[in-house]
Every structure is written in C-alpha cells, then in structure tokens.
Amino acid sequence: MTTVAPRSDVRRHELAEFLRSRRERITPEQVGLPRGRRRRTPGLRREEVAQLSAVGVTWYTWLEQAREIQVSAQVLDAVARALLLDPSERAHLFALAGTADPAPNTPCPSVTPALREMLDQLAPLPACVQNSRYDILAYNSTYGRLLCDLDEMPPEDRNGLWLAFTDPGWRESVVNHAETLRILAAKFRASMAEHLAEPAWKALVARLEARSPEFREVWARHEVVGQGARTKYIRNRYVGLLHLEHTSLWLGPAPGPRLVTYAPLDGETRERLERLQALAQDRAQDRAQDRAQDRAQDRAQDRAQDRARAQAPDPVAV
C-alpha cells in the first residue's frame, strides 16, 4: 500500500531545503562576518543565520530539519533579510510557510488587488489593512486623511503606534488622547508576547523609547489589553468631530494582518465622512496633476539639454 505524506509535511521539507540552499550560497563576507580558518560548511553556518536573524540557534536548526514548529511572519521576515533573499525568493519563502508577508516596505501578499478594491469600495468609511505590529499596509482615501495625511508620511513612519506617540496631527485628532495611548500601548504589548525576540518589534519599541518620553512612561506600566471593537471620537481637521465604531476583521490567523474599518454611529458623522472622502479625492487629483506637470517639466529640460549639446561647437574642430 502506498502512503502519501500530508501536505504540511511536504511544505515543511520543501521550506527546509529552500532555506538550506539559500544559506549555503551566501559567503560570510557578504553579511559582514569573518570567514575564519576552519570553515567546512559552504556558505553560512546555521548559528550565523540565527545570529543575523536574532532567533535561537535551536529554533532555526529545527526549521531546517523540517520539524513541526510554529513560524511567525515576523521571524520569517528576519530570516529573509539575513539570507539576502530577492523579492521572488522572499515571496517563495512566505508561500512555503503559508504565511502572509508583513513587511511594510515590500508588496504584501495579503494585500491583493481585490482587497485594495474592497478598501476603495468601503469609502466613505475609513478603512485600512494593518499587521499585528500596527504597520499600515494599505488604506483608502478617507482613512488617508482621517488622522493625518498618510500620503505625506515616509513608508517607515506609517505605523499606528509610532504616529500616535510622535505625529502632532495624529495626536490632535484623537479625543481622550491619554486614555487612547494607554490602551494602544497595552494592545501592542499583548501582541508582542509572541514576538519578543524579533528584530522588527524590538526596533520599533527602541525607536519609540528614544523619541517619546510619554511612550516610555506608558510602556513601563506593563499593561495588556486584548483586541476588540470599540467606539471612538476623532476630531478631523477638515470636517470636525466624528463618532465612529472601530472594528477589526482578521484576514487570516489572529496574529496576522487585519482589515480595520471605522463605521459612523450617527447621520452627522456619515455626512462628514462623505465630505472628507470628497476632499481626499480632490487632493489625490491635485497630486496627480502635480506629478504630471513635474514629468512634463523634466522632459522639457531633457530636450533643452539635448538641443544645447547638439548646438555646442565640436571641441576637436575648435
């Protein structure tokens, strides 16, 4: 009788072989490590990958041995960076692990074209996709103008926790600011329990502690709060006070990305959200026109430079 290995076993072994092959192709010099005299392993050693990824050596060894262990998206992100994976290899890694890519600055497999279309169709309701680290992976036009102008923010700053503690516009928009920050930090600490050793999480906490005394004070309390729907008041700089219900819909396992929506709780709020959407759309059109004008000016300058070079005397002939 022929037996067929479960799909999960096949995935784990394929993932293990893929990681081993990527590890063996990288030289220590490529990642800033000394080669040493007695190196028999081609490429990097397992303990070096673990060191570069800030994970345990035993855990990474089990991963390459196809052991049945839990692998979070954030740890996979650290391993992908340590192994210098290109975009195709990174996508393959997350596909083998059956996990959504959480990195805010790379195309996120969980944010599909269909999901982006859904975000747009939800407008005028503000909506976005966040991961458990509060990185804002995608958002519609209304959410982009709800608390601050997200389009003006660098991608590395599009994080709800970072903006809540450091951005003046975001902070001014939140009613009952002190209580909101306390709850937000407590939710983040509860989520971080599964990611304590992961570089991206530790880097965000270190960055906040260096920037915000308020965050240091709240973080030191060690409070934890679970996720859940709740009502909020937001004072938008363009349309005024909004009374909203905040809801999260997980797109996969609870620690992964989630669709966040803000539904109006009264007619006046709905009308103001419609006005905000119109303002956001007008702003987007203005930006598109500005970009088109910039491109036209660049092309005109290039043509002028080409003509100047063509009309310049030949230095050899002179």
Which SSEs are present, and which pair or pack?
Blueprint: H1 7-24, H2 46-53, H3 57-64, H4 73-82, H5 87-97, H6 113-122, E1 127-130, E2 136-139, H7 141-144, H8 160-166, H9 168-173, H10 177-192, H11 199-211, H12 213-219, E3 230-236, E4 240-250, E5 258-264, H13 267-311
Antiparallel strand pairs: 1-2, 1-5, 3-4, 4-5
Helix pairs in contact: 2-3, 2-4, 4-5
Distance between the termini: 90 Å
Number of helical segments with 4 or more residues: 13
List unreliable stretches of 5+ residues. Answer: 1-5
Q: Kindly estimate the percentage of residues that lie in beta strands according to DSSP.
A: 5-15%
The coarse overall form would be globular
In N-to-C order, the SSE pattern is HHHHHHEEHHHHHHEEEH
Rg from C-alpha positions? Answer: 25 Å
The overall strand count is 5
Textual characterization of the structure:
This protein has 318 residues and is an alpha+beta fold. Helix content is 51%, strand content 10%. It has 13 helices and 5 strands. The protein has helices at residues 7-24, 46-53, 57-64, 73-82, 87-97, 113-122, 141-144, 160-166, 168-173, 177-192, 199-211, 213-219, 267-311, and strands at 127-130, 136-139, 230-236, 240-250, 258-264. A hairpin with a 5-residue loop joins strand 1 and strand 2. The N and C termini lie far apart (90 Å).
